[in-house]
Amino acid sequence: MFSITVKLMKKSAKMLIPAGIAILIGTAFIATTFLFSNTMNDSLVRQQTAIYAGADAMVLTDLPEHPTDAQSDEAYSRTVADYHLDRIRTVDGVEGVRAVTATNIRLSNGNHHATGYAINTGETNLLPVTVIRGDRPVDNREVALPEHVAEQLDVHVGDVVHVSRGNTADSQGSAGGIEARVTGLTDDPNNVYAYDGGASILSEDLMAFANGVADFNQVNATSIYLDLDTRTDTASIKRLLPRYSRLVNRAEADRLAVESLSSNGTSVVTTFLLSFGVLAMLVAALVIANTFQVLVAQRRRTLALLRTIGATKQQLYASVIIEATVLGLMASVLGVALGIGLMAALCASGIMASTGMDARLVLSWQVFAVPMVFGLAMTILASLSSARSATAVTPLEALRPMELTDTRRAGVLRGVIATLLIVCGMAFAGFAAWQMHASLTGHESLVKDHYVVVLLTAIGGCAAVFLGLVIAAVFWLPLLMHGVGSLVALAGPSATVANANIQKNPRRVAATGAALLIGVTLVATIATGAASAKQTMGEALASRYSVDMIATGTDMTDEQATKAAETKGIAASAYMPTTVMTTTTEDKKGLTVLVAGVEHAADLRKVMKANIGGASVDNNHVLLPKHDADSGKGLRFNNSGITLEPVSDGTADAVGSSLTLAPEQVDYRRVSADYDAVAFVNNSYFANGDLTATGHMLLMRVDNDAAGTTLNDVLTNVRNAFSSSDGVMVSGPIAERSMWETMINGMMALLVGLIAVAVLIALVGVANTLSLSVIERTRESATLRAIGMTRGQLRRSLAVEALLLSLVSGVVGVLLGTVFGWLGSYMVFSLYGNVVFPFDWAGNGLMLGIAALAALIASIAPARRAVSVPPVVALAEA
Questions:
Q1: Residue 825, pLDDT score
Q2: Where are the alpha helices (DSSP H) in 299-350?
């Protein structure tokens, strides 16, 4: 029977190709997922262990399983002195020891500024970064800089650079820094500090200064690395270590680093990606099932002849299973090979290296076993129904005319199950939405204490509805296509033929449409959720801020402010001097206030979205907000007057004098989130010397409808205007909105790209369905040609058939996805503000356009086959 099966496969090779492609794509996706996970794990392990450099041993924190606050404080507040480095160096066999300290620093050289991450110096083999030019720092205020930082600062080995503390408040600028000599340039070959773009090396006195202490021994240290030889007395070292410390060798440290990766997200990433691989394989199963159903239908006469000459039902059943096994095995092997090839090309291209990941191809047994087992299993499962159909063939059918059209009616049980799923799913989703509405309107709700349960109920409800619709597709999808096709049939004979043909095999039409429906619905859900997220968060951020964009800084210049104000997309701006002061509320709560000077209240009205009414900024009043910028709680001040007190910037005595003014409160919010409140006084106080400006602020109103520019462009251009000043910070809802939209767009692109695999397989299914239909309708196509239908009309009929299959399923998927996206947005984003329910016309239109184009392309090969045989030959063959 095996030889007969192989011969049948060879005869039907062209029909098996689409199913094989579907399996190949799905298994390649799964194999690539494992390869990507292996590469990421390998890169992270090497990156995580590379921080130990050439150390033979290191000291790790070793707290009890449930440490007290006091134990944690003691373990994580250790200083260099606590490790007794001088005494450890005297232990026999210790070749070197380095305390592990780090900090953020700010660097400047004239008008050039940079920020960076810095580690302390030590023996060369204990440093995780290498010095590629010059020497490592030793003492006397020396620093080695990453090569790109040196270029940014325009300094070379031997030059002097200004170093200040990285956590210095913006109001301090570069004050309090010290000069340091550049002794060398560093490189980070193992991407230990990829996130920070490399690391500088500081001499011990510079590290002490950067940490704000007088001596290096007072710097907080997280660990020590040791260079040991084989005769080292480790017991003597352990006796010198502080409490809650453990000395481990390099092998143990590497093992612990590998174990830590199981909780750093790589396994989550693998599971996340594999879920889309499983989705792709499920869609592929629908394509495979279609293929085998038609194969069995086409071979009914052959199978009947086999029964006539003695083949048993079990042998026919086994024949179909063998065919599925061979197809699944061959396609899975090719899929794994394709996945390995794609990942090898990706690693070799350097694309992953540009993201900071040192990528190399890492093979594992999962790369080969899991995709092949899954591909083989899905192929066999998809063929079981067809195998059962093969056993129903009787010997007498060898004498009957071959009828390929599947007229079987869908079972009642399928309808009952689908109905129950849809009804229960709608009930769950409705219950979750009702609970969320009750919570938002202040009524008793499960959301308060069981939000996750309510959210999962909504997700489960949507999943049940969708699954029910997919199961019931054999009932409603052919009817829907018949209704749409009846309208399309009015366009001419080609459309009439297409509408008639698409009704001949409703089960296959339903399976093909369901495959496409799955992918389109998921894409539309994600696109709708992303659009809702961006608009909802945009409105929520706008309601929290009174100004679109704010730039504050100690070294902001008039020229920079003018350049920023003239940026395309900035509709209005107000530039003002600022100083930091303190005051108290009516209930004696102290506030840190950024005081800004303005000429007139009209300057604020043109940039603020808040209604400041008839408020004025004169010599007797100070304009204050009604709410705390951070907590949102109401602020109340003594109406008889408040006193604004100057504060020290940490490097000198307080500048300016105190000022007592009558408060006037207006409901403007969150002008700057860095202070409890922003107050406005008349600019004359800065002009006459009562207040001394320690910085400036530029308030900007953005024109959201400015032609030819996006919010991200406006933000980027404004930041570029201040690029020569390291102390200027640009913030506001536009900045946060840009960050949100960038993150959402990135996530959406990733998810849509992953789901596109399933859509691609579904479109392969469209091509498969058309090909099978052409093969089935050889006599019909010949008859149509014989009675006068042209080649072009026959091609158009298949194109219309493909469009009906793809667009009807696509439109239903878009509508379902939009509803699911709206519900998901309501359940998630209601917590942040008033939810916007958009319809993503552009995204959905593009998706349907791509589906239509792909369907037309899919119809080319079947149409060529249909018109390639002359009518007389086709009739003779039929």
A1: 86
A2: 300-308, 313-349
667 in helix, strand or coil? coil
Residues in contact with 414: Cβ distance below 8 Å, sequence separation at least 6, in sequence order: 471, 472, 474
- Return mean pLDDT, the chain: 81
Answer for the pair 202, 192: CB distance below 8 angstroms, yes or no.
no
Sign of CA dihedral 616, 618, 620, 625: positive
User: At 273, is the pLDDT very low, low, confident or very high (cuts 50, 70, 90)?
Assistant: low
Amino acid at 642: I
Per-residue pLDDT, 175: 46
Q: Are 521 and 303 in contact (CB under 8 A)?
A: no
- The DSSP secondary-structure symbol of 446 reads T
Q: What does each C-alpha distance from 598 to 5, 213, 353, 676, 683 come to in angstroms?
A: 89, 40, 50, 19, 5
Quote the CA–CA distance of 116 and 553 in Å, as a whole number: 19
Neighbours of 358 (CB within 10 A): 18
Please report which helix (H) or strand (E) contains residue 226, including its range: strand 223-228
Pairing, β 621-625 against β 659-666? parallel
Greater pLDDT, 12 or 76: 76
Of 41-55, 481-495, 819-833, the least confident: 41-55
Examine the pLDDT at 742 and tell me if it is beyond 90.
Answer: no
Are 234 and 57 a contacting pair, CB within 8 Å? yes
Residues 6+ positions from 319 with CB-CB distance below 8 Å: 1, 4, 5, 8, 390
- Structure tokens of 795? 């091609």
Residue spans of the domains in the chain: they are 1-50+250-403, 57-249, 421-471, 475-528+752-827+839-878, 547-731
Q: Are 379 and 67 in contact (CB under 8 A)?
A: no
Q: Locate tokens 């009604």: which residue?
A: 626
Contact 119, 131 (CB under 8 A): no
**DSSP letter (8 states) at residue 731:** E
pLDDT grade for 404, boundaries at 50, 70 and 90: very low
The CB-side HSE value for 784 (13 A sphere, CA atoms) comes to: 24
Burial environment of residue 590 by CB neighbours within 10 A (0 to 12, 13 to 18, 19 or more): exposed
**Per 3-state DSSP, what percentage of the chain is helix, strand, and coil (rounded to 5)?**
55, 15, 25
Torsion sign over Cα 810, 812, 818, 821:
negative
Task: Reply yes or no on whether the pLDDT at 674 is more than 60.
Answer: yes
CB neighbours (10 Å) of residue 158?
Answer: 10
Q: How many CB atoms lie within 10 A of CB 798?
A: 30
User: Residue-wise over 659-677: b if at least 16 C-beta within 10 A, else e?
Assistant: bebebbbbebbbbbebbbb
Q: What distance in Å separates the CA atoms of residue 82 and residue 224, rounded to the nearest whole number?
A: 11
Structure tokens at 566: 């003239």
Q: Which residue has the higher pLDDT, 420 or 648?
A: 420
The residue-averaged pLDDT of 447-475 equals: 86
Is the model more confident about 268 or about 702? 702
For residue 504, the 8-state DSSP code is S
H or E segment at 733? helix 733-776
pLDDT confidence of residue 191: 78
Decide: helix, strand or coil at residue 411. coil
Q: Cβ atoms within 10 A of the Cβ of 775, count? A: 18
Q: Among 260-264, 603-607, 730-734, which stretch is predicted with the lowest mean pLDDT?
A: 260-264
Sign of CA pseudo-dihedral 291, 296, 299, 302: positive
CB 855 within 8 A of CB 805: yes
Contact 149, 92 (CB under 8 A): no
pTM comes to 0.63
Cα of 782 vs its chain's centroid, Å: 52
> Amino acid letter at 323?
E
d(CA 609, CA 247): 59
**For the ranges 14-28, 197-211, 261-275, 517-531, the one whose mean pLDDT is highest:** 197-211
Q: pLDDT band for 402, please (50, 70, 90 cuts).
A: very low
DSSP state for residue 482 in the 8-state scheme: H
